[in-house]
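Write out this protein's structure.
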Amino acid sequence: MHENDIVTLDIEKFSNLGYGIAKVDGYVIFVEGACPGDIVSAKITKANKNFAQAKTLEVLTPSKNRVEPFCPMQKVCGACQLQFIDYDYQLELKRQIVEDAIRTIGGLDAEIPKPIASPEIKNYRHKIQYPVSETKVSKRILAGYYKPQTHEIVNLKHCPIQPEICDKVMDFIREHAFDFGISGFNEKKHSGDLRHVVIRSSADSGRLLVTLVVNATKTFERLNKFAKAIFDEFDEVSGVCVNFNSKKTNVILGKKSECIAGVDFIEEKLLEKTFKIGPNTFFQVNPKSAENIFKYVKDFIRKNYKKPLVLDAYAGISTFGICVSDTAEKVVTVEENPESCEQARESLKINKVKNVEIHNSDAAEFFKNEKRRFDLTIIDPPRKGCSEESLNEVFRLTKGHIVYVSCNPATLARDLKILITKGCRVESIQPFDMFCHTYHVENVAIIKVPQ
């Protein structure tokens, strides 16, 4: 098999990164844009002695689970890799991804249930982050997602997985940036004003917070006027902020933000609790699916504990801690980002919650110095999972159950394997579909700690 070969392939399985898998005389080929059950004509894009990568050129015989994508940009935009697959079958493929990881990496012979579906599969994404550039000659603003494996922007005028108002705000920014002398960013030259636009929208109220990420260290008059024009144009916009990021980095947001018009937050509701979300706040992109996760965990606590002492680690704005607070004697939350801790304290006041204790600390440092033992510990780490040292500390601090919330089946499986060697028992793993039409899947693992 060589690069640029055109081959006919029978797609047998699905990979954890959203590729179809075919075999030719035992040689594995990962095929972009293919669904199990398809027979496709594909072009080999990369080949080595162990495997090859290919791109679908034509679907010769479609799988019974293949559908027409509802977004005409699906093939060129890298955001919704699985939109050509029937939604119910997407859930089955995600179930298989989790089960494969748990068995091959974690060594657990577990049957994984189907993911709990997202309540919405269109307009579900309530955080958008568009990179911005401009055309060479006309200096027209381009904003959208990158084409897969490139830094070439697909100029998206309409995205059906986010609220329609976000499209209207982005259209206004594209059309009027030039009027205010605001240029798009040139990544190669590290020049230009506007690097990204980040929009947070509330599923509860429909309000928006718009953040203009600029290649600067302080604000300037034409930028302020542009921000105010965006605020004045849309009744739905609660505030427009500027975030300063002049570094040569792939990180989208810099550390410092400034509110130019309106207020620097929106409010979201989960399980009848209200949360303030600022420009730099981590918050779930699919609030209604997140609410399913919080309810699942809260129901588990209610059924198995009577007023426990709960630890919520990697807490962000203490969403978990606040959501489960009325089932607990006390919740102790740990988060290293000071802004998130400040917003968590605001949310405590808004919700009149008195039994949540907030610690602004690195989780690993907090674990080392903590003397209390907790009936139940909730951990929701980033994609890289937990360090073995942190898992050791969580094990030491927990008397009853560890609830491990993960957005990465591979690191979840790895970490479960470590906990099992300590005598822990995995009672259940439930996937949730937080990121519809992508290969990503969220999981909640319930782990019993030995007495």
